[in-house]
Amino acid sequence: MKKLYVIAGCNGAGKTTASYTILPEILDCKEFVNADEIARGISPFQPEKVGIEAGRMMLKRIKNLLEAGESFAFETTLSTRSYVTFIEKATKLSYQVTCLFFLLDSEELAISRVATRVKEGGHHIPEEVIRRRYKSGLKNFFNLFLPRVDNWLFVNNSGDSYEIIAEGSMNEITVNNVLQWKELKEKYYGN
């Protein structure tokens, strides 16, 4: 079966780091499309200057993989609606679509993680962009993406080890941290 993995979460949530282990070793997914990695390939010393070009290349690569019927994963903050179309197309093409969402407890933690990444040579993201993406990514997860994917896993990656908050499919939801899941749904679902 063709599979599409959507690796989602705010900036600094650990999406890329987790993907390099989860995708090839656990999910047997060898194709990972990531705009940040594409940007580093174009301009290793100033990837932030080629972000738009890298984003276009990423969208083209996703389109080509869907048309070729390849299993693959892509990374996103889910802060825009743009990937809804790809997920709907993948579903029509008989892909099994799974979303892995990595949560951080706060916008401040996301900002701190990005600052640490910059000190280690990673790319900078303005604080206001991190805050906007944090909120819109959660809203879009609950309102746009959750109803459209076959399976999903919602992981808190704030601490030294991760915690699976909830997981589900079209027919079933298992909630492991009832309080946090309830708070997030109340804050972001339907808003």
TrEMBL record:
GO MF annotations in UniProt: ATP binding; kinase activity
UniProt-listed Gene3D superfamilies: P-loop containing nucleotide triphosphate hydrolases (3.40.50.300)
Limits of the Zeta toxin domain: 2-141
InterPro entries, sorted: P-loop_NTPase, Zeta_toxin_domain
Keywords, in A-Z order: ATP-binding, Nucleotide-binding
PANTHER family in the cross-refs: SLL8004 PROTEIN
Name recorded for this polypeptide: Predicted ABC-type ATPase
